[in-house]
Structure formats: structure tokens, C-alpha cells
Amino acid sequence: MEVESKSAAGQIVWTASQSTFVHTFLANFIDEGLKTSTGFKKVHLNKCVEALNEKFKLNRTGDHIGNHLKTLRRRYCKINQLRSLSGALWDEDQYIISLDHEHYRNHFENPKNKGDDEYINKPLPYYGNLATIFGNSVATGQFAKSSNEPLGVDADCTAENDDNGAATAMTNGQAQSDVNDDNGASCSAATRPYKKAKVVEAANESLARVLERSTQTLANAIKEAAVANRALPERLFSIVDNLPGFEIQDKSRYYGYLVANPDIARAFADLPLLYKISWMTMFINANF
């Protein structure tokens, strides 16, 4: 069980698994058409925080979710900014920003770019969900985060703000029910994604529906097979163990499930990284 943690300044600290849970939960909301033109309604943030608190035994509020969305929004803009760097290559399957040695060295000669290392030449599995949530409707200037600020901490979520509900804006004395995710601004053309993430392609089909069809196709193939192939994929343990954002206990449970179901394990091993994370998240949420 994860425990509630705060930084020395009293700010909420989010673990990778907690953050993954939040943006996966909200991305599914969008796929179901539950986001307004101005953002998420407070009732949807409250549903998200209820599920988060139940899973991780926390005591977060809808305002904490709203503030964490701002952090995720800054991260999304930062990734898009780095994608537009000279010499940068973008792998849309694994969500990797690649720089060769020379461009990498030139970029990090500037001390201000020190924090960009966590985004370059490594998979960014959460990008698909962030693209679903924010799309092109975020501002790169207002929400740009300094490279020296830790992205696991919500910089605008102090202990005082937690108590006062900073995520709910007040207009003419009334609480605004929507948490705005764009403030009327949009990403610049230089930082706009060149292609939509695969999870929102095909007329913004929901990830849940895609996975449901994939699972049904797999089930039909298994039923039609004359002899079941019980061989497990090579490096199955490494594939599960290297998935980011999950606790060891959850990885162990899912690995055991795959070992007991070789056909599903083989299908899982061939999925792109984001789909692997989604499958594992759905399994954990449904069973634990």
C-alpha cells in the first residue's frame, strides 16, 4: 500500500503509479465523451479521486486532481517543445524523442536544459494519454515548467491550496464547476503534434473499445485453434518487469496471470508499450 507523501514545502508528491492511474482514468473519460469544451467537470474529477483513493488508500481531493492536471499539462507541452528541436526524431510507436550524440550534446550545453534528460532518448509511455486529454488545447508559455522543478511534485499545490480548493475558480461569487484545461490558449504550431496518438485515431475511438475488440479477436482465435500452443514469449518476465509506473507486487501478479494464460501472454508481448500499460492497468483495477 502506498502512503500519502508531501515534500518539505508541504506539497503533494505523486508516485509514478498514482499519476499513471489518474491520466489513464481521465483519458478513458474523454474517450467516452465526458469532457466539455472548457475541461473536466468537477464531478468527473471527484470520480477520479474516489477511484484513486480507493486503490492507493489516500486522502486526495478533486482539487488535488485539478492541480495535478496542470503538472501533466506542463509535461505534455514540454514534450511537444522538445519534439520540435532541430535534429529530433519522433517514434510514434514507443513515444521516444531521439537525438543523436551531437544534437544531444549541443542541447545540454545550456544548463537550463538539464532537466530535459528525462524526456530524451527514452520511452514516454504516458504521452498517448496526455495527447488524449490535452490535444492541441494547452498553452506552452503559461504552463511551461522550469527544467529544475521536479515533475513528481505539483508546484502550484501547496498545503494551503489543498485546504482551500485552489483548483476551483470563483467567478462572480460562484464556484466554477469546470476545471479549465486550456484557458483559451493553444499550443503553438511548432509544438503541435504532427500526428495524433494512436489511441485517439480512427475518429477518436475509445481505447476501451479497441482493447475490447482486440481481446474478442484473440478469444475467437484461441477457440478456433485445434491445439493450444503453451509456449511463453521470450523475455516475458523482462517485458513485465520493465513496465514503468507499477509496483513490484502488481508486476508479480500480472506476470503470474500471463504465465497461466500463454495465449494472452503472447498477444501482450507483441503490443506497443502504451497498450501493454493499459492492459496491465485494466487487469489490476479489475482484480485488486
UniProtKB/TrEMBL annotation:
Pinpoint the Myb/SANT-like domain residues: 14-104
Span list, region Disordered: 164-184
> Which residue ranges have biased composition labelled Polar residues?
169-184
What's the superkingdom here? Eukaryota
Q: What is this protein called?
A: Myb/SANT-like domain-containing protein
